[in-house]
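Trying the structure run again after the queue cleared.
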Amino acid sequence: MTRRVASRTIGIGIGAALAAFAGAAAAAYQWNLAPGVTRSSQGVYDLHNIMMGIILVIFLAVFGVLSYAIYAHRKSRGHQAAQFHENTTVEMIWTVIPFFILITMAWPATKTLLAMRDSSNPDLTVKVTGYQWKWGYDYLKGEGEGISFMSVLATTPDQIYGNAPKSEHYLLEVDNRLVVPVGKKVRLLTTANDVIHSWFVPELGVKQDANPGFVRDTFFRAEREGIYRGQCAELCGKDHGFMPVVVEVVSAEKYAAWVAAQRARMAAAADDPNKKWELAELKARGEKVYGQNCVACHQANGQGVKGAFPALDGSKIVNGPAQGQIALVLAGKPGTAMASFKQLSDTEIAAVITYTRNSWGNKAGDAVQPADVKAQRK
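Done. Tokens:
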């Protein structure tokens, strides 16, 4: 009697331990998709569940019939292999049943895809341009029209590769987030400046390729405020893994305040194209532009990466006539990773060129003015 009680107690204890382990495992792992915060993402989530249900039923039916056939019609019981050659009934069955299964799957899939493509009547239109390796945002229509900015990974190389402190989202944080109002339909026009990129934010239910020379469109309408993160989902070069997307969805009041702040910032940052800059001013500003656009390839010390990206320190182009370097920065170099940077302003290009010509071992001693860049811009 005592042994039975002890065995039962041990069994209960093992069962409780297994139950606790299963609960902990369920809490630690999420096997399903996230439902997201838009109707599109919810539609994808529901479609995924429907498809998994159909697949599970097919699997159980096929595996069940197969298992029964192997057991009940085994050779040891005297059964002979059946012949279905040119059996019209069997051929009809294995043609018609899959046909109806495909129709059952195609209907909700088509309905979901059509809903995801309806970008008509947006409240806000934003052009998204992919660059190696950052995103450019231009608010074309709606509240905030005229706002433009670049969005670059905010984490420094020392935080990525070194021991500097870094946040939880250090590979998914940018200096300028795409800010949109909650509950508003946002149409995205995607394109690229150099190679194929892909703008992907799972919780918004959006994944749209950005192809050079083409404009594609998609949309989302976020139903909850929050910060939603994604990445470029197309292998686009060396720093593909450092090209995050961050969308901040805010209330109408916060969005109006953000728009006002952005317009004030743009007005303050607007440069007089006729201004003559001092060498020290251009170098200081150029260092910031270099850190945002050039340091990933040419490195902070200007030495580049041997065999991949040329050094700027001691470069004949950098130390040669300024017109040649301006032309290279504006047009890029086909067949290499050197893309065009004409999306930068004349002042930014003049500043970064001045910085490279007067940094490290380079001692050009000249100051490239915005007017010089403007004269060569096509």
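The chain is about 45% helix and 15% strand. Worth checking whether this holds up in the mutant runs.
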